[in-house]
Design brief:
Layout (H helix, E strand, L loop, with lengths): L6 E6 L8 E6 L2 H11 L15 E5 L5 H9 L4 E5 L3 H10 L5 E4 L2 E3 L3 E6 L21 E8 H4 L8 E5 L5 H9 L9 E6 L2 H10 L3 E10 L2 E8 L5 H4 L6
Parallel strand pairs: 3-4, 3-9, 4-5, 6-8, 9-10
Antiparallel strand pairs: 1-2, 7-8, 10-12, 11-12
Length: 243
């Protein structure tokens, strides 16, 4: 699949004062806004008390905004970027050059399965396996989704994070992660939700996690940051008001 969308590049200013670096993305309002949200820390807060990761799975990496953000701010971690859309692969490779990022040209699901990837007309960010209003009358690409259970690093003993932005496929991946042995559970789960029903399910499913940050972008869409209970310091919880 050849890139047909216009592409642009901008400088990312580093918060630690180190030299800026170029970041390339598809030139449209949606993609520009999403990339800006990552690099201005609107999407993910750099909370000082978060447990340091050894590994981060960025599932639904697109052109690499989240992977680059994590790699720059957590340089000791290995970032695994999963992206099934071939339209994004060249920019994903370009944006992660020189960073500790390993690219996987497939997506994840609860179990291994063949799938049809639908691509969006206005933005590559809208590509997804599940149907939505943003993927009507569009091109398709046949792909294989791998089991999330098989992708969890064998050495992970809590010291890994999961970042999910997979346009409606989050439920199965979360289910697979919750079936892992407790010692392999991620310390941090960052997830974009696309329905109010799924958001409410998360509250029940992730009952061993604290909700530590959220950004609501619509009545059925937003991002949530969950941290495993034992990873949240007591002083952070000290000001909780109980009834």
């Amino acid at each position: 699949m050849e890139n047909q969308r216009p592409i642009t590049s901008e400088k990312i200013e580093m918060i630690d004062g180190s030299p800026s670096r170029d970041f390339s993305f598809f030139e449209n309002e949606i993609d520009r806004g999403e990339c800006a949200a990552w690099f201005s820390m609107q999407r993910f807060p750099l909370l000082a008390w978060l447990p340091k990761p050894t590994t981060i799975l960025d599932v639904g990496a697109n052109v690499g905004a989240a992977s680059v953000f994590f790699a720059l701010n957590y340089p000791d971690a290995t970032i695994h970027a999963y992206e099934p859309n071939p339209e994004c692969w060249n920019l994903l490779e370009l944006n992660t050059v020189g960073l500790n990022v390993e690219i996987h040209r497939y997506g994840l699901a609860y179990c291994k399965q063949a799938a049809t990837l639908r691509t969006g007309p206005a933005s590559a960010l809208a590509s997804c396996v599940s149907k939505s209003a943003g993927t009507l009358n569009l091109g398709t690409h046949q792909t294989t989704l791998q089991s999330v259970y098989e992708e969890i690093p064998d050495h992970a003993k809590g010291g890994w994070w999961l970042s999910l932005d997979v346009e409606g496929m989050e439920r199965g991946i979360i289910q697979g992660v919750m079936e892992l042995p407790e010692w392999k559970s991620p310390d941090v789960i960052f997830v974009e939700f696309h329905s109010e029903k799924f958001r409410r399910e998360l509250e029940q499913t992730l009952n061993e996690y604290w909700l530590c940050f959220g950004r609501i972008t619509g009545p059925h869409r937003g991002e949530l940051l969950y941290v495993r209970n034992e990873c949240v310091p007591d002083d952070v919880l000290a000001d909780e008001i109980t009834e």
